[in-house]
């Protein structure tokens, strides 16, 4: 069976918390205030927000990361998966260098 490695790409992400609600709303374009109340809910289960993804609406919970993919698509990611998959990059690092193909001649 063939094996594959995920290509290194730089993504943008915001962790869903009440403390950064405004930043998250601006980033994802969801959760805006309507009649003074945020779209989403906070109840005994904690903060939840519906995120439009390529697969349909997905529920993000407090602490989840909202990731913007390479084509602008959004999806939630659990904190443990995010930590195992991603690492911080410098603010001025927009993308990783791509290795040039070696010529045969």
Notes on the structure:
The chain is of the alpha+beta class. The protein has a domain at 17-85. It is built from two helices and eight strands. It has helices at 21-28, 79-85; strands at 12-15, 33-34, 37-38, 41-43, 46-53, 56-61, 65-68, 74-77. The chain has a three-stranded antiparallel beta sheet. Strands 4-5-6 form a three-stranded antiparallel beta sheet, with no helix packed on it. The chain starts with 11 loop residues before the first strand and ends in a 20-residue tail after the last helix. The relative contact order is 0.20. Residues 98-105 have low confidence and may be disordered.
Strands in their spatial order, largest beta sheet: 1-7-8
Distance between the termini: 33 Å
What class, by secondary structure content? alpha+beta
Q: Say how many strands there are.
A: 8
Number of helices: 2
Give the overall average pLDDT.
79
Order of helices and strands: EHEEEEEEEH
Shape summary: globular
Beta-strand content estimate: 25-35%
How much is the radius of gyration in Å? 17 Å
Task: Note poorly predicted spans.
Answer: 98-105
Summarize the structure in short.
With 105 residues, the chain is of the alpha+beta class.
What tags apply to this protein structure?
3-stranded antiparallel beta sheet, 2 helices, disordered C terminus, single chain, 8 strands, alpha+beta, 105 residues
């Amino acid at each position: 069976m063939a094996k594959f490695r995920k290509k290194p790409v730089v993504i943008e992400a915001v962790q869903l918390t009440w403390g950064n609600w405004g930043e998250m709303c601006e980033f994802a374009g969801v959760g805006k205030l309507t009649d003074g109340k945020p779209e989403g809910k906070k109840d005994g289960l904690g903060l939840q927000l519906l995120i439009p993804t390529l697969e349909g609406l997905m529920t993000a919970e407090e602490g989840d990361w909202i990731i913007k993919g390479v084509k602008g698509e959004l999806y939630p990611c659990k904190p443990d998966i995010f930590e195992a998959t991603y690492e911080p990059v410098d603010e001025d690092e927009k993308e990783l260098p791509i290795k040039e193909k070696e010529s045969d001649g």
